Every structure is written in structure tokens, then in C-alpha cells.
């Protein structure tokens, strides 16, 4: 059974489901990329690897800053979308 095809519990359920799916998708993407890079370096720099490690490593701060900034913007964007949706649906108290 597909959880996204269940009947809606409220008028807002479809939008909330989409926001949660987007958050889950971005989280899985970030985790997969992080673990993929980790495994790549574990295999590449394992003890028995014939790779030359004597050369001075190049600075990679641009890649690190870009990766961190892109992830931050993605999650802030999802948070902003969620908060604007929540504020637009709020009913005034009577």
C-alpha cells in the first residue's frame, strides 16, 4: 500500500505529506552523499593501498564551504516553506 495514496485526514494533510516527503528526500540525499564520500575515502586510503601519501594535500576549503552552504540553504528553504505554510493556515481564535 502506498502511504501517499491514503485518504486525507484533513484539508492540510496533502501539503504536510509533501513537505515531509521533501524533508525525507533531502535528508536521504545528504546522508547518501556523506556516507558515499566516507566509503570512497576509506577504500582509497586503506592501509594496503599503493597510493602515494607523501605529497602535500591541496586545500579544499571551497568544496567544503560550497557543500555546507548548499545543504544549509536547502534545509533553510524547507524550513521557510513549512513555516509560511503553517502561518498561512492558522485560524484566528474567536
Protein described:
It is a single chain. With 94 residues, this protein is an all-alpha fold. It has one domain. Helix content is 64%, strand content 0%. The protein contains two helices and no strands. It has helices spanning 13-44, 61-88. Helix 1 packs antiparallel against helix 2.
Give the key terms.
mainly alpha, 94 residues
In brief:
The protein has helices spanning 13-44, 61-88. It is mostly helical and 94 residues long.
Please provide the ordered H/E string of secondary-structure elements: HH
Q: What's the Cα radius of gyration?
A: 21 Å
Shape annotation: elongated
Unreliable sequence segments: none
Helix-strand blueprint:
Layout: H1 13-44, H2 61-88
Amino acid at each position: 500500500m502506498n502511504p501517499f495514496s491514503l485518504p486525507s485526514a484533513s484539508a492540510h494533510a496533502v501539503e504536510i505529506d509533501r513537505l515531509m516527503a521533501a524533508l525525507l528526500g533531502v535528508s536521504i540525499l545528504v546522508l547518501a552523499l556523506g556516507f558515499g564520500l566516507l566509503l570512497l575515502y576509506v577504500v582509497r586510503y586503506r592501509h594496503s593501498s599503493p597510493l602515494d601519501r607523501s605529497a602535500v594535500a591541496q586545500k579544499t576549503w571551497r568544496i567544503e564551504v560550497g557543500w555546507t552552504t548548499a545543504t544549509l540553504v536547502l534545509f533553510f528553504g524547507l524550513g521557510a516553506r513549512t513555516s509560511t505554510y503553517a502561518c498561512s493556515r492558522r485560524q484566528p481564535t474567536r
